[in-house]
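re the bet — no i am not wrong, look at it urself. input seq straight from the record:
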Amino acid sequence: MMYPFMTLNDGTELAHSEAYMDDESKDESIGMLTHQLADESETASLLTQRIENTVRYIRELFREDSGGHDAEHSLRVYRNALRIAEREPSCDWEIVALAALLHDADDHKLFSNRNNANARAFLEQNDVPPERIERICEVINSVSFSRNKGKRPGSAEAAIVQDADRLDAMGAVGIARTFAYGGEHGRPLEESVQHFHEKLLLLKDLMNTETGKNLAQKRYAFLETFLEEYREEMDEPDRGRVFKYGTLCDR
């Protein structure tokens, strides 16, 4: 997929070309997500290196997660954010990219950190200027569904990343993540299904960008189809009965 040019905060045009890493890296995901500036300037090299470093960092940070908040989730959010950013020419692409990749780095469900400690430490180590670190953290802090109820994102970048994350909570992937998280935390099926009504089914009407709203339609429809089939299978006449000595009996 090719993305059009966008403008960074310094006025440099960013070409979203699907570049590749050298053979030594051998990391297809990093290569696919590496983006170069058209003029191959120093800014281009720095941005490319930051993104590559961020992908490596989240792979290490989430290497043991099996509950739907793994590195692959963050990479999907990153890709969703790029698709949305394509239609939001006024956004700062670097802020969107780094916030999307790092949006779970200090998630309260996963870490006991405060003040975006993981994200800040990583960004500082990668020489991101302090004022941009603040902007990235502001975007990250706008993503959580539970902590931002009734609030609207305060910037175009925050709206994009929030939509990108919410898209990954919908559709087939959203369903898979819900049950993965439920299984990891010992939840019965019905408790995981209840999460659909508490969050997943609400997201379609909470999207911020037009692109996000459009992408959410299909994923919302799949959620409804899944729930209809789930209820049909769970409500079969023989539910709650067991075979005993070759005959169906009440439990």
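see?? Residues 19 and 76 are 18 Å apart (CA to CA). told u. also The first strand starts at residue 3 and ends at 7. so pay up
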